[in-house]
Specification:
Elements lengths: L1 H23 L6 H19 L11 H5 L2 H22 L4 H22 L7 H18 L2
Length: 142
């Protein structure tokens, strides 16, 4: 379980870095050019890190890359990137944007998790959902 917290801490650090980058990126640059540059950097960093991760799939790199989940993930990433970029350009504030989007996404994922992935549900999770809803309401009040 401790390993999961380390990985979540890495994701949190990445999320902070991501939002700082999104908030401070040039407001006049073409968003699609920026995305190509950002993903060029991500590609190079991933290529450099790839040898340090074991490949347990048994499949070729091309087979892993051209799978439908990778294509769906890629589309999702572009939507996230352009959504935050345009939100920050339109004046959205850094302190609540990530929380609001993650909270709303988590709420929308609940039925998917329950129906498609048959994940367990509990009273604690219901309370968490209610707290998230209250938090979203409080975050959107001016």
């Amino acid at each position: 379980m401790k390993q999961a917290f380390v990985f979540l801490a890495i994701a949190a650090l990445g999320n902070i870095t991501y939002h700082l980058g999104q908030k401070t990126i040039s407001p006049t640059a073409n968003p699609m050019i920026l995305l190509m540059a950002v993903y060029g950097v991500a590609f190079v960093l991933s290529a450099l890190a790839a040898p340090f991760f074991r490949d347990t799939s048994g499949g070729s790199w091309l087979g892993q890359i051209l799978s439908w989940p990778v294509l769906v993930l890629g589309a999702g990433v572009v939507l996230i990137e352009i959504g935050f970029l345009l939100a920050y350009r339109s004046g959205n504030i850094l302190q609540w944007s990530g929380v609001a989007v993650n909270g709303a996404s988590a709420l929308l994922l609940v039925p998917i998790a329950l129906i498609i992935f048959r994940e367990a549900f509990s009273i604690q999770r219901l309370i968490g959902i209610l707290v998230t809803l209250v938090g979203l309401v409080l975050l959107t009040k001016h």
